[in-house]
Write a structure and sequence with these properties.
The complex is a heterodimer. Chain A is mostly helical. Chain A has helices spanning 2-6, 11-27, 32-55, 63-79, 89-113, 118-138, 151-158, 160-190, 193-203, 205-210, 215-240, 247-250, 253-266, 273-291, 296-310, 314-322; strands at residues 148-149, 244-245. In chain A, α2 (11-27) packs antiparallel against α3 (32-55), α3 packs across α13 (253-266) and α5 (89-113) packs antiparallel against α11 (215-240). Chain B is an alpha/beta fold. Chain B has eleven helices and eleven strands. Classes of the chains: A mainly alpha, B alpha/beta. The interface between A and B is medium-sized, with 16 and 26 residues.
């Protein structure tokens, strides 16, 4: 029993970090906006890590899953606006729809792109978000380029007070919960045979194959899991927080790049990494935009080069190496 | 044990295998020899279906497995030791071996297989907690072979196991291959460019050139036939 429980110790620092983040946000005036951004980055990184970190494949079209998640929530809220009795149930349905749509998209993308390896996979995915954006605009899906604005519907379903609280507070809490859930799933995977299979294929796909591992299956599992969390992040952080959606905003490759920076900075394939990366990235981006406006991207470009050259395993990767021989090691994964 | 009939495959538009047929009988060491680019590695990859067959048949224990996915073939007891050192450099020797016992069937016999591997390669036991990437070339090759033994195979296909090794280690590798046959009772399909050493160990020999089998026979016959050895093997 004890050793079974020990496997879950690494969740402790994760939960503590989220708790501190929450308490700081609630008790320091004027900081909730920053905390909300940080929570978004944490959840984004944690979700992306399940794919990028565990398989070593870089998906440049990742933001598309957040985008379709946002559309999933938007569709649920606008479509069910007449059923006021459903109340909060609409949000639950919205999340379900977001997950389903992100899963379907990831299966479609994965079926084609996951047959490719390494750099070829990355190249194949670059166009996914752009392609999807132009599909929505060109085929006039979901109102095409004029987007969807559903503040009124949200007010109608939840009532003006609750809708306001959802936009300013509960959406962020949902993002927090999604981030924690993604971390829990990451750890569950790490502790199971899925984790072993993913580690093997990340290190050497040919070797994994001759060990009898069905590599495609496990890549798809990681891809779908990661995508469905992304869908939920989009639904909570973009659709509920700001109840409108425009294709150019939700299919912006910029967010994918941020997710890659966060995961690499913190440590790809580690449990804590995305969280650490998100906090470092989010806080420094916030202060850089105040003190050196316009230079953030330039500075992050340099930072990412330095990281890849000096410590490719990221902050948590380095920490893991340093704590290998002491008592802290069971907390850091 | 393994029977290949007129196998065809290639990459893109380029055909590499031009209908080679061969047979590996149970408990034997069968060597597949030939120069660079003859298609030997492609043949092994196609047998395992990690390169898709274009035509022909592969039978394993009498069963048609031509289009069976690779991971299922491993489950059935076929193992491939790929060319070059495909091991996990950032894991310890033990972790590498444990990874080999990934399948349920292999996991059930993990400690037994581990004992076997450690008797076969006592050096790996000494080094079990070292990072695999820090081992010498010969030791790394031992880890790769051992990891495939951990999958509990009945047929093991080795792709140039002596490649890039010092002469002394080459003879060690071939000694191990003989042990795998005599002590463990494995069936072995050996792909090699090291003609002399292979001819010393093999029971039956196939000679491959430009994607098809040009000659075959029991080892003694091949050795005697100056025509064959000088034309295809440069001996």
């Amino acid at each position: 029993m004890n050793s079974k429980l020990k496997k879950y110790y690494p969740l402790l620092p994760v939960c503590v970090a989220y708790l501190i983040l929450f308490l700081v946000g609630r008790n320091v005036t004027g900081i909730w906006q920053l905390v909300s951004t940080l929570l978004f980055y944490c959840a984004l990184g944690q979700a992306f890590n399940i794919f990028l970190g565990m398989t070593g494949y870089v998906d440049f079209g990742y933001v598309a899953f957040l985008g379709v998640g946002t559309y999933g929530m938007a569709t649920a809220v606008t479509g069910l606006a007449g059923y006021e009795g459903l109340g909060v149930g609409v949000i639950v349905i919205g999340f379900a729809l977001a997950v389903i749509m992100a899963t379907l998209l990831s299966m479609a993308v994965g079926a084609v792109a996951l047959r490719l390896r390494g750099a070829y996979f990355a190249i194949a995915t670059i166009g996914v978000n752009e392609g999807f954006r132009y599909l929505i605009e060109g085929a006039n899906l979901w109102n095409g380029s004029s987007g969807m604005i559903f503040t009124a519907e949200l007010n109608q379903i939840l009532g003006r007070d609750l809708a306001g609280r959802v936009m300013t507070f509960w959406a962020d809490i949902l993002v927090l919960i999604i981030g924690v859930a993604a971390a829990v799933v990451t750890l569950l995977y790490m502790n199971s045979k899925i984790g072993y299979a993913l580690t093997a294929l990340r290190e050497d796909e040919d070797a994994a194959k001759v060990m009898g591992i069905h590599v495609t299956k496990f890549k798809i599992i990681a891809f779908i899991t990661s995508a469905s969390f992304a869908g939920m992040v989009g639904a909570a952080s973009w659709a509920l927080k700001t109840p409108y959606v425009f294709p150019p905003e939700v299919f912006e490759i910029h967010y994918t790049i941020e997710a890659i920076i966060i995961v690499m900075l913190g440590g790809a394939g580690t449990l804590m990494g995305p969280l650490v990366g998100a906090l470092i990235y989010g806080v420094s981006k916030y202060y850089l935009s105040i003190f050196l406006p316009g230079f953030q991207l330039f500075i992050f470009a340099l930072v990412i080069i330095v990281i890849i050259v000096l410590f490719p395993e990221g902050v948590v990767g380095v920490l893991k190496g340093k704590t290998r021989n002491n008592r802290l090691k069971q907390l850091i994964l | 044990m393994l029977k290949i009939e007129k196998l065809e495959s290639g990459y893109g538009a380029m055909q590499v295998l031009w209908q080679p047929s061969l047979e590996v009988s149970r408990g034997s060491i069968t060597a597949l020899l030939g120069p660079n680019g003859a298609g030997k590695s492609t043949l092994l990859s196609t047998v395992l279906n990690s390169v898709k067959p274009w035509g022909g048949k592969v039978y394993y224990k009498g069963e048609d497995v031509t289009y069976t996915p690779s991971h299922k073939k491993v489950h059935k007891g076929m193992a491939l030791v790929p060319e070059g050192k495909h091991l996990f450099p950032n894991m310890t020797v033990y972790e590498n071996l444990a990874m080999g016992a990934y399948l349920d069937k292999a996991l059930a016999h993990k400690s037994e297989s581990l004992d076997l591997v450690y008797t076969l390669f006592p050096r790996l036991k000494e080094r079990h907690s070292q990072m695999a990437g820090l081992l010498s070339g010969g030791e790394q090759q031992m880890v790769t072979i051992s990891r495939s033994l951990m999958t509990k195979p009945e047929l093991i296909m080795l792709d140039e196991p002596s490649q890039g090794l010092a002469p002394k280690l080459v003879s060690e590798v071939f000694e191990t291959i003989r042990k795998m046959k005599y002590d463990i009772g494995l069936t072995i399909l050996l792909v090699e460019q090291n003609v002399d050493a292979s001819l010393d160990s093999a029971d039956y020999v196939y000679i491959m050139h430009e994607g098809s089998i040009k000659a075959e026979g029991v080892t003694e016959k091949i050795k005697e036939s100056k025509d064959i050895t000088s034309t295809y093997l440069g001996v």
